[in-house]
Amino acid sequence: MRTPSTPAITLDQAIAHAARIDGALHAFNYRPTTYKATVHSGGALAGVPIAVKDLIDTADMPTTYGSKVFEGHQPAQDAWIVSKLRAAGAIIFGKTVTTEFAWRDPGATVNPWNPAHSPGGSSSGSAAAVGAGIVNIGLGTQTVGSIIRPASYCGAVGYKPTFGLIPTNGVHQLAASLDHLGFITSSVYWAAVCHAIVVQGTDVDAARFNLQGLRPRKVGVYRSSQWAQVDTAVQQNFDAVLARLAAFGVACVEVDFESDIRDLNALTSDILAYEAHAAIAPDIAGKEALAGDYTRELMARGAAIDATRYAALLTELAQLRARRDALFTEVDVILSITSPTTALKGLQKTGDASFCAPATLLGLPAVTVPSGFSNDLLPFGVQLIGAGNKDWDTLLTAQWLSTILPALSAPSLLPPVN
């Protein structure tokens, strides 16, 4: 893993690496020809190039939200998070490919470990750019699993904060009750830097960030009722991580959320459909033919849910979130998989986000760290879920976990596999 002792990728390095590989990787849909020099002389983000998901407004770069409907769109101002990062001295390196409106219609991005496989979605471009070693930090959004899953598929770290911790002003909504802003990074250290600057309003450096992390006392193990549907290789990797934890004296106990994973995913799906219809239907009105098949199907599902049903869904969500931290009275964090498979072959689908939905729906912080390779050299990742607003502790625990698991170096882009 990268640590503060490893210098940040410089702007010149990012430009050169993107020029070499992005013609095959397709992580970016826009990169400027020149960059403004940072005026911030100090701090961990000074001069650091950051990739920004094309769902997030940038005043000096086009923002299309992954849709033909918005081709050529130029926002009037930066999103809140972009302004915050610029003020910290970061350089906005370019806009990364997203699925349309952060839903399911994919772009052209491929997986940096094997271009025949999906990078995941919807933060596909940011995950690929970080996984390929172009930048240390990419911005992502998650409404179900769109930070954690692509980060895992691309061999990167993904951090989804507690719901509402980062303002989403200037980010195109998919579902207001579920949308999160977060980060895909080359190490937990860079995720912690972003958290400190964006959330805490402070800075962090090697001296203040505990490189050893925080060893948990007891870890809750979340397999769920869908464990039998998880690929054998993913199960074996997860069990190997548990054995590693046990070897370091960490107690591991089986846990479950208040509701079954299938019910949590169904609630997520219905809330998302209703809110997505409200957020997107006005944008594509009269231009439906330009929208993708998955977007149009989502609009139809959302239109079929009435206001009474939606109010009941929000009541159920509020009740679940009010009780969400009960599990953490007995465990420090919860460990789960990120997806039932490694990165899918082909680019038509972005993968299964069902194991990401519980943390997203409940608004809990989640961090994924790489946990090894499959036999076909695709990354595995495991997901740590923390109690609400315990993001810093969750990041420190993820840092500790990353020190006892295999480190992944950025790959060379492989030739397509037939």
Written overview of the protein:
The protein is α/β, with parallel strands linked by helices and about 425 residues long. It is about 35% helix and about 15% strand. The protein contains eleven helices and eleven strands. Strands 1-3-2-4-6-5-10-11-9-7-8 form an eleven-stranded mixed sheet, sandwiched between helices. β10 and β11 (about 380-385) form a beta hairpin. α7 crosses α9 (about 305-320). It is globular, with a radius of gyration of 20 Å.
Which key terms come to mind for this protein?
418 residues, 11 helices, 14% strand, globular
- Percentage of residues in strands: 5-15%
- Roughly how much helix do the residues carry, as a percent range? 25-40%
> How do the helices and strands follow one another from N- to C-terminus?
HEEHEHEHEEHEHEHHHEHEEH
Q: What is the first-to-last residue Cα distance? A: 31 Å
In order across it, which strands form the biggest sheet? 1-3-2-4-6-5-10-11-9-7-8
Low-confidence stretches: none
- Secondary structure category: alpha/beta
What is the residue-averaged pLDDT? 94
Oligomer: single chain
Count the helices. How many?
A: 11
- Calculate Rg over CA atoms: 20 Å
Global morphology: globular
What's the story with the biggest beta sheet? 11 strands, mixed
